[in-house]
Amino acid sequence: MQRHSTWPGELSIDAEGDCRNVSRSPFGEECHLRLSGADGSYSILDYRAPAGFGPVRHVHPEADEAISVHEGRIVVWTPQRCFTMSPGDMTLLPKNLPHTWRAYGNDGVHFTITIIPGGLERYFSLAEQRRLTVADHAGLSAAAQEAGVTMLGPPLSDDEVAQIVAGKTSLNATVPPLRP
Question: pTM above the 0.90 mark?
Fold first, then answer.
């Protein structure tokens, strides 16, 4: 059920019990736009991904991203610092900061993503509408670019995840190139 308010500005709220309109990426991610502000000023997304999944290293040139973990555990990589997050943890990844994350352990992850300004949710619906596959690097990159995300390099490797979980707070500050 979508609820709309006219104050302050246009506001769209989607009630949790009515989360039928979920976009799914070819990687098994599920993303649902829960709340969006006037003129794309922000988006709050309900996000889920399978165990072991993590996106490619990327940057949001125009948007800040906050992640609040509800279920599962993730490692987070930035060129300056690496860390783990568990349920109840929250972090802010400012615009122009290269980053990625990856679920680790036996469980998938569930977290809330807040994007300011909004628009990231477009990636998931574009990937689904275009029926992009995991192997369609050019199509996925184009959809990401349209949603305000620049892909930089590969996802975290198993070795990198193990190092971060072991407490190494900085690793591989340079971003490896994406492979076609």
Answer: no
